[in-house]
Structures are given as C-alpha cells and as structure tokens.
Write a structure and sequence with these properties.
52% strand, 5% helix, CarboxyPept-like_regulatory, YceI family protein, Lipid/polyisoprenoid-bd_YceI, single chain, TTHA0802/YceI-like_sf
Length: 280
C-alpha cells in the first residue's frame, strides 16, 4: 500500500449469506461527488480498494437485490478491517407521488468517465444543470427532462477543460446545451427501470436507454420536503454525436476514447406551492 494512501475491503453477501460475485461497486468522493473507482466483486464476493485519505460513499448494486450504500473514512497508512455487507432482497419501493419533481442541484451530480487514449481514465462532471420529473399516476407514462450547460464541464485540468469546450469536442459556443428527454419508462423488476429517451449533444440527437436504480422516497432535507432519488447510467459512443476521435488522433490531438460512461446521481424535490423550486 502506498504510504500516502489507505485501504478498505468489503465482503458482499446475498440474502442467504453466500458470497455475491459480480456485484457492481461504485466509490464516490463525498466532498467532490467524483467517482474515484468502480468495479465488480470477485467470485468470493470481495472488493478491495486503495484510496487517498478522505471520506467516500460506496454503493453496491446487484440485479434483483436492493442497493447498499456505506460510508468509509480513509486514513493514510491504515487498512480498515474488512466489512461484511449483506444485500437484501429487492422490494418494490413506494413510487414517487404523482406530480412535478425538480432536481435539487446541491444533492445531484452529473458525472462521466472516459478512457484517455493510451493512458488512464478521465473523470469529470458538469456543474450546471437543471431537470425535473413529471410523475404520472401510471409510472410508465412519466417523463424526465434534463438540460446540462455544456460549458460547465470540469475534469480538474483547465487546459483539458478548455479543449473539451472547443470546436474539437463539445463546441459550446455553437451547442451550449446537452439535453435529455425521456419517451417511456420500462420496469425491469425490483428497483430497476430503463428510461428510454433522446439525448441531444453537439447538434445531434440519438436514442439512449438509461439503466436506472430507484432509491426510494423520503421526507427529509431543509424543511422535511418530500424527496426521491435515483441513480442512472448509460454508455455513449462519441462518434454517434459527430465527435470524431479517430480524425483528431490522426491529427496528433491527444483525446479521450470512443466511449463515455455517463452517470446521474439524482435527488429531486416534490414541487408544491410552498416549495416551488429547490433552495439555492
């Protein structure tokens, strides 16, 4: 273990206490909302990570089981004792109340991961966005819309961020927004849904499916508002949006790879006359 890092290990088990191989684990820095690593448990149900000091949220997801979220605090030079995490059977969570729900930006993150050509992964996020969910009495008829300010892209490197905003990539002067509008909700069992819709980026629209895990509805927050949460993921192919990485590579431009993993960690508030919009 590097001297300036710490480590943690989870043993993931199913409802019968048996090792849960192949469960998806996502580790997110609490302060920045940045995904720092992700992977799957080995056949014996183990997941181990070495991380810089800090607080991290660890989400474990497996088909047909309820997601589990744990928080770990990493200290340099310390390997935390192995923790056993049991996944419970998926239950049909109470669906959101019919009506309008608006994203709460301080508790929502729009992130992406791209493979840098010949190097490591690039992690980034968009810091300015707005969105909402119109929940219908029949959930399958509900609609989601998201608008992202393309210029708010950040990867922690100013030179790279300016390049991503340029005409080589997002071309934010000509295409200032990235928009997603759903067309239908498809129930997949347990807490899993697929949101089918249209993603418009760089002047091009394509059909996409967001693999979505519904995390439930609670009263809580600033004034005990009604809130719901979900985690949605999709893989995008950059050439579908006329971002031609091969031609840029031929011109000697160091670029990210042909696919991008998009992730939206959403918390939304129920809109009422008393709380027409999420607080600043």
């Amino acid at each position: 273990m590097p001297p300036d890092a710490g480590a943690f290990g989870f043993e993931i088990v199913d409802p019968m206490g048996q090792p849960m191989g192949g469960a998806e684990v996502t580790v997110t820095a609490v302060e920045s909302h940045r995904v720092v690593t992700r992977g799957t448990t080995d056949p014996n149900g183990y997941f181990i990570a070495t991380l810089p000091p800090g607080s991290y949220s660890v989400m474990t997801v497996a088909e047909g089981l309820s997601p589990a979220r744990e928080t770990v605090d990493i200290t340099a030079g310390v390997a935390l004792p192995q923790t056993r995490v049991g996944l419970a059977p998926a239950r049909r969570l109470e669906l959101p109340t019919a009506g309008t729900w608006l994203f709460d930006p301080p508790h929502t993150a729009v992130r992406f991961i791209a493979k840098h050509v010949g190097m490591a992964h690039v992690h980034g996020r968009f810091t300015r966005f707005q969105g909402g969910i119109r929940v219908a009495p029949d959930m399958a008829d509900s609609q989601v819309s998201v608008r992202i300010d393309a210029a708010s892209i950040t990867t922690g490197n100013n030179t790279r961020d300016n390049h991503l905003r340029s005409a080589d990539f997002l071309d934010v002067e000509r295409y200032p927004y990235i928009d997603f509008t759903s067309t239908r909700f498809a129930y997949r069992g347990g807490s899993r849904w697929t949101l089918h819709g249209t993603l418009t980026m760089h002047g091009t629209s394509r059909s996409v499916g967001l693999d979505t895990t519904y995390l439930g509805m609670v009263n809580g927050g600033y004034d005990q508002e009604l809130r719901c949460a979900a985690l949605a993921k999709a893989e995008l192919h950059r050439e579908d949006y006329t971002l031609n990485w091969r031609s840029m590579l031929a011109r000697g431009i160091a670029v990210v790879g042909p696919t991008i993993q998009l992730e939206m960690d959403v918390q939304a508030m129920y809109r009422t006359h008393d709380t027409p919009t999420p607080p600043e």
